[in-house]
Design goal:
The chain is an alpha/beta fold and 245 residues long. The chain has helices spanning 20-27, 64-78, 95-101, 140-151, 161-166, 199-217, 219-222, 230-244, and strands spanning 2-7, 32-37, 50-51, 61-62, 82-92, 106-111, 127-130, 184-185, 188-189. The strands form three sheets. The chain has a five-stranded parallel β-sheet with strand order 2-1-6-5-7.
Length: 245
């Protein structure tokens, strides 16, 4: 899969894309990254990519022309990608959205800065995505979050394919509690069930804890959870009874 990133600050991506999971995926040829500096497509010696907003107001607006020219450059090189504009006005990133975007062969992530890009950019992108209801200085960090979320879903990027399926939020459930050595730390013990060797009981405990934790910490998610079987429905009832006292 190819990720193209349009940005005013390409060096932001140097380290994150060359570490850990993303580095290994790139070395395996599973993903590739093409970073485009929007300033290279400005039409003046100062490489100006922003200007004052029509109608007045604070801050500066990114000009449409350099962004559009950068998009055309990408299309000439690779063909037309699926364009995603990172913006607080977009759809909130969810696991379902990451799954859908992972099916494209080529995504072009357009990163705004300042007070955003000239509104006419919406005529040329396919969709808008936000990573949450808070303010960042630009779309670059949001693009990195999106790349990480999508890359994990590409076959063979994560070594253990089962862990991708069982990841937190894949079913609108938080992950069950996880422990490792030592068995006791400052008097806090690992739950005995996890040391029992009874794999079926461990599976049941983990499933119930996943449902209970989601109900307690993210009740908004539990509304979207669809029990897979009668056991799930029973665990949900028991968790609700426990939390209600």
């Amino acid at each position: 899969m190819r990720f193209t990133i349009l940005t005013l600050f390409p060096r932001i991506f140097d380290s994150p894309l060359d570490e850990s999971l993303l580095k290994k995926a790139r070395q395996k040829g599973l993903v590739e990254f093409f970073i485009v500096n929007i300033r290279d497509f400005a039409d003046d010696p100062h490489r100006t990519c922003d200007d004052y907003p029509y109608g007045g107001g604070p801050g500066m607006i990114m000009k449409i022309e350099p962004v559009y020219k950068a998009m055309k450059h990408v299309e000439e090189k690779f063909g037309r990608p699926h364009y995603v504009l990172l913006t607080p006005q977009g759809k909130i990133l969810t696991q379902d959205l990451a799954q859908r975007l992972s099916r494209f062969d080529h995504l072009c992530l357009v990163c705004g800065r300042y007070e955003g890009i000239d509104e006419r950019i919406l005529h040329f992108v396919d969709e808008e995505v936000s990573i949450g209801d808070y303010v960042l200085s630009g779309g670059e960090l949001a693009a990195l979050v999106l790349i990480e979320a999508i890359s994990r879903l590409i076959p063979n990027v994560v070594g253990n394919e089962r862990s991708v399926f069982e990841d937190s939020l894949s079913e609108y459930l938080l992950e069950y509690p996880q422990y490792t050595r030592p068995r006791s730390f400052l008097g806090i013990e690992v739950p005995a069930i996890l040391l029992s060797g009874n794999h079926e009981e461990i599976r049941r405990w983990r499933r119930k804890e996943s449902i209970r934790k989601t109900l307690l910490k993210r009740p908004d998610l539990i509304e979207r959870f669809r029990p897979r079987c009668e056991e799930d429905r029973r665990f949900l009832r028991e968790a609700m009874e426990e939390l209600c006292g």
